Amino acid sequence: MQIIFSSNNAKKLQEVQSILSGFNVKSYRAFLDTIDIVENGVTFEENAHLKAHSIYKLLEGIEGDYCVLADDSGICVDALNAMPGIYSARFASIQEGAQEILQGCFAIPQKECSDTLNNLKLLACLEELGITQSSASFVCVIAMHARVKGVLQQRTFRGECEGKVFKAPLNPQAFGYDPLFIPKGYTLSMDHIQEKNSISHRFLALQQCKDFLESLGTANIP
């Protein structure tokens, strides 16, 4: 079965292809022009389904079975009342500071920002709160819209990786908030952990998805 990932983020696509080894995973850009999907859900689950549904509908004309996977993920920091959460990719667009964020008094961010700017925003919030670290968790929700033997299958898979964020130097080669996150049971930040793709929130969600696809007999996984 063709697996179509509804993202054009090269680093995220590489992670998905690595975790779903054995499946033929391509970006939706192999089939469609770039499209803008308004992520106006209030949970990871809602946003993931919005993306999966949008791509699935646009691909209904292709032949055979196919599976659209959409990822919505982010980091939830306890000291910030689980922010930035669903706004993780847009966190630096929030002009308000940590105190306003804690009170929920901020404008909903619209513009995606670079990993570096988002990391700097999180560090600035920690500094404003007078702390150097906080418990936190990475969350990933994978929404699946698949056509299997002509029948639509919809599922949601959620993975969480617990740990903490801390004040640390940034790594411009790293992905997302990895340089500021240490998983539970580790002493290194996520960007320095070789087995990242076997412990991450994305791995945990995709492993559930992989198990489900195998149960349908849609692929022969070595």
From TrEMBL:
Q: Which GO terms describe its molecular function?
A: hydrolase activity
SUPFAM superfamilies recorded: ITPase-like (SSF52972)
Keyword set, alphabetical order: Hydrolase, Nucleotide metabolism
| Pfam families named among the record's database cross-references | Ham1p_like
Question: For this protein, what is the EC number?
Answer: 3.6.1.-
Family listed: Belongs to the HAM1 NTPase family.
This chain belongs to which protein, by name? Non-canonical purine NTP pyrophosphatase
What species was this sequence derived from?
Helicobacter baculiformis
| Lineage per the UniProt record | Bacteria, Pseudomonadati, Campylobacterota, Epsilonproteobacteria, Campylobacterales
